[in-house]
Amino acid sequence: MAAPAGQGSSAADRVRVVPVEGADTLFTPAFLAYLVRMHDAFTPRAQALRVERDRVLRRALEQGIMPGPAPESARAAGDWKVPPVPEDLRKPGIEISGPCSITSMFINALNPGPEGERAEGDLDDDEDSAGHRLVDTVRACHNRLAAVNRELGVRRPRAQSRVQDRRRRAAVLHAPRARTAPRRARGDGGRRADPRRHPRHRPHALLPGRAQADRGQGIYFYLPKLEARPSACGTGTSSTRAARPLPFLKTAVIRGIPLVESLPAVWQMDEMLHALGPYAAGLNAARWDLKASIFEFVMADPKSVWPDRFGVDIKTTPFLADIFRRLVAVCLRRGAVPIGGMATALAQQ
Question: pTM to 2 decimals?
């Protein structure tokens, strides 16, 4: 973590990293300087977004004013499309999700199953399923790098497993922890740079991302907890700023896929894709977090009764099915890909 900026202070002076195994090879002086520069540039924006998110939620709970459609704009109504989507992301099929800090689980996700079939994608999830300790972040980065370089393996008491070196690999998508997620108060006004919290500014871009770019592989991100155009715009801007000091990223294929997992985002799908600009690829139908978000907005309304969440799905709940049908329609109109179980099912109807 980092102390506030001061006159003549260096990145090494501002960042204090808890000693964990493997951290020294990741948190080099070049990375720390990069982290602090990105932190200073984008933390004020992230803080402003958190304030706005709180305002939207309070307005719903205290005044009964729910999120709704954005004002009609040329961005939503115009005849534009996202850049051509890489073939890796266009293949329908199974996508396995899990934390890649658990080495054996990550290997199993990348390798074929017992019948020889391989998943089309692997969601390397640092958002919901991963631990948020620094040691988890460091281990996950080392595992991603080893997997890209075909060096990942784990030794067990009676066996050893490795990522199989085959020509066709599962497309790996990285889901970083949301920049706008709540964090414990530190009393520093957000001036401490946290290596775990900067999506493209973490070791992922500098090490696994570079290895992927060197092999001609795309660098793909799921973008969790976006709620509206400003948050997506901030992601696009930070991606451009992140690439400037890293020459290998200037020619790399970088794409982002917002997860539609909040009620405000339901109304902002066109706007978010447009805001991502050259980094846009598609939208993901994330039903569990979306259901939690809807409940969060309506829980103060005595007229709203929420059923057992396991009974809320696209077969039994028309409004949920309509949300994901809208997601599919937006993607088809914009040349993007609808990703996720519900989106895949509805796209085939």
Answer: 0.81
To the nearest 10 degrees (0 to 180), the angle between helices 229-243 and 29-63 is 180
Q: What is the CA radius of gyration of the chain?
A: 21
Q: How many CA atoms lie within 13 A of 256 on its CB side?
A: 29
Mention every residue, 6+ apart, whose C-beta is less than 8 A from residue 185: none
pLDDT in tens, 27-63: 888 888 888 888 888 888 888 888 989 999 999 999 9
pLDDT tens digits, 251-283: 888 898 999 989 999 998 998 998 888 889 999
Euclidean distance between CA atoms 114 and 112, whole angstroms? 7
> Cα separations (Å) of 292 from 59, 70, 247?
18, 22, 40
For domain 14-66+93-284, the CATH superfamily is: Malate synthase, domain 3 (3.20.20.360)
DSSP 8-state secondary structure symbol assigned to residue 157: S
Report residue 276 as tokens: 């991502």
How deeply is 17 buried, as exposed, middle or buried, from its count of CB atoms within 10 A (0-12, 13-18, 19+)?
middle
